[in-house]
Design a protein that fits this description.
Oligomer: single chain
Radius of gyration: 21 Å
Number of strands: 2
Shape: elongated
Helix content: 40-55%
Largest sheet: 2 strands, antiparallel
């Protein structure tokens, strides 16, 4: 797989490749070496790594409030607190779908 991606990145019509991983430092497939995200070092040198973090409860509350405003939904503070907890234990997408 890595040889295919390396060839694709070196071609004239090089694609933009987006990868998502949470593997950390791990084995490179087919070798005894370890590297960040399990990617070969020559490929890793060509990448831009963008770290992401979870939303805080305050940020989740703000997102839920914005969605309620957009959907013209009135919701009590207690209901919002329940949705914030739900978003933290499942996903923000699920909590937003519950509003509808």
């Amino acid at each position: 797989m890595f040889s295919f991606l390396n060839r694709a990145m070196e071609s004239e019509m090089a694609p933009i490749i987006v990868m998502a991983t949470n593997r950390g430092i791990t084995d490179i497939r087919g070798t005894d070496f370890k590297s960040p995200h399990g990617l070969p070092m020559d490929m890793l040198d060509r990448m831009l790594i963008i770290p992401t973090e979870h939303y805080s409860q305050q940020e989740i509350l703000q997102i839920l409030q914005t969605r309620c405003d957009e959907e013209d939904v009135a919701m009590s503070d207690k209901a919002k607190a329940v949705l914030v907890k739900l978003a933290g234990s499942t996903s923000l997408r699920y909590a937003l779908q519950v509003i509808q």
